[in-house]
Amino acid sequence: MEPLRFHLFACEQQKPEGVPGCAARGAARTLDALRKEIAARGLTDEVQITSCGSIGLCERGPNLIVYPDGVWYSGVQPEDAAEIVESHLQHGRPVARLVNNDAGALAAEVRLNRDKYLAGLRARDAAGAMPDDVMQMIRGYQDSRVVLTAIELDVFTAVGDRTTAAEVAQTIGADRRGTEMLLNALVALGLLTKDGGAFAVTPVSRRFFTAGGQNDARAATMHTVGQWERWSKLTDAVRAGGDIAGAEIPHRGSDWLQSFIAAMHRNASERAAAVVHAAGASGVSRMLDVGGGSGAYSIAFAQANPQLHAEVFDLENVLPMTRGYIAAAGIESRVATRPGDLRSDVFGSGYDLVFVSAVCHMLSPAENRDLLARCFAALAPSGRIVINDFILNAEKTAPKAGALFSLNMLVGTRQGASYSEDEYRGWLAEAGFEKIERIRLAGPTNLMTGTRR
Ligand SMILES: C[S@@+](CC[C@H](N)C(=O)[O-])C[C@H]1O[C@@H](n2cnc3c(N)ncnc32)[C@H](O)[C@@H]1O
Ligand code: FES
Hints:
- Strand 1, helix 1 (27-40) and strand 2 (47-52) form a beta-alpha-beta unit.
- The protein has three domains: 6-126, Glutaredoxin (3-Layer(aba) Sandwich), CATH 3.40.30; 132-227, Arc Repressor Mutant, subunit A, CATH 1.10.10.10; 249-451, Vaccinia Virus protein VP39 (Rossmann fold, 3-Layer(aba) Sandwich).
- The protein has helices at residues 27-40, 81-90, 103-126, 132-152, 155-159, 165-172, 176-188, 203-209, 218-231, 234-240, 254-279, 296-304, 319-329, 365-378, 400-412, 421-431; strands at 6-11, 47-52, 64-67, 71-73, 163-164, 192-195, 198-201, 286-290, 309-314, 335-339, 351-357, 379-389, 391-392, 419-420, 434-439, 446-451.
- The protein is α/β, with parallel strands linked by helices.
- It starts with 5 loop residues before the first strand and ends with a strand.
- The radius of gyration is 27 Å and the shape is globular.
- The strands form four sheets. A seven-stranded mixed beta sheet has the order 10-9-8-11-12-16-15, sandwiched between helices. The chain has a four-stranded mixed beta sheet with strand order 2-1-3-4, with helices on one face.
- The structure holds S-adenosylmethionine and FE2/S2 (inorganic) cluster.
């Protein structure tokens, strides 16, 4: 069966540094060029291109196989993409100068490379070398720190389209030698390019990390800069059982709050459509958004249902930011703000929907029981609660994002954690909710819902 006219397998295998392989020989750029060429010629419905692991011609990459023809290309450069697509895929004439013609020689080369590779693995294992993925885990902080320092110093904005290290150092008020090393590392990570002595942003770093970028995420990423500091105290937090977080959210200062709410807004804006779709906004006329942050979810619920009025309940010093986001969405008439303390306030009554997003993980189990009882009391008969949060398996070991996030709460809150579905079910039932359900969403968080009879 051939569902498509052509299926291309392009090797993008990453090998340890110094070992020949397609990734090191520029496979990503070749693949990109092929994809663009296929799209430009309107062939995306007929031609599938799949990046794959090694096909055994590692010293002659980037390699590409075209099926159903079974044509093996080697040494394919980005400049060859147009010719391959036009000549082979459109006119049925493989590009002879890049094709491997001797099947026997090819099979021998594949076997030789496979044997060399397996022998290398055995030798590394015998020498007690750590597996690459474990090494990567141990050194992962380096990539993260390079990017966060660049954001902290606003390096990408300073680099722009073409700048030397000396100019960047002057703009950001930093040491020239240190700046140059940082810029070189950013090139190695693929977030800058370097041509001679001149550095430039890539499309991705321009879009997310420069002033005026299409989706400027610098303010939100500054929240991760703060998290990095706290994660560096993880050992202390594990020893002490948490409680090293310092000031609670209301007292962390306006810079911290700005980047925190900006980060919440980015996350929430990305997930809001899926959450509103899954939770359902129809039939809701009054909604309470407990710890609503930037208001991104309330805005999305109100946009989905013109009858819906939402109240974003949050700390007094957060709400001016919330009002800014609501005004930017032009929905002030239906999304209001309400100051208060979600740890103790009575929320009122008569709401059709109480939404609690990314709040339960800040609290202890006892605080969550208390919170959910007050949410229950705030609902009208048949009203619903929707909780949006990381929801762990019973062993609390998966999903990975939730299990790691629990440590984020260990270092960042007094008693927060990620909780399991069973814990949420228990608290909701204890508060009086019925029809308790878990709604699975793509991505890191899920919904838990319950209804007040
Ligand atoms: C992790 S954020 C989640 C924001 C929003 N619900 C979302 O999902 O994007 C937690 C929110 O709870 C608010 N918050 C923390 N402690 C609070 C308290 N004691 N009373 C009211 N709001 C609080 C924070 O200001 C923040 O907006
Ligand atoms: S790494 Fe691409 S063929 Fe081996």
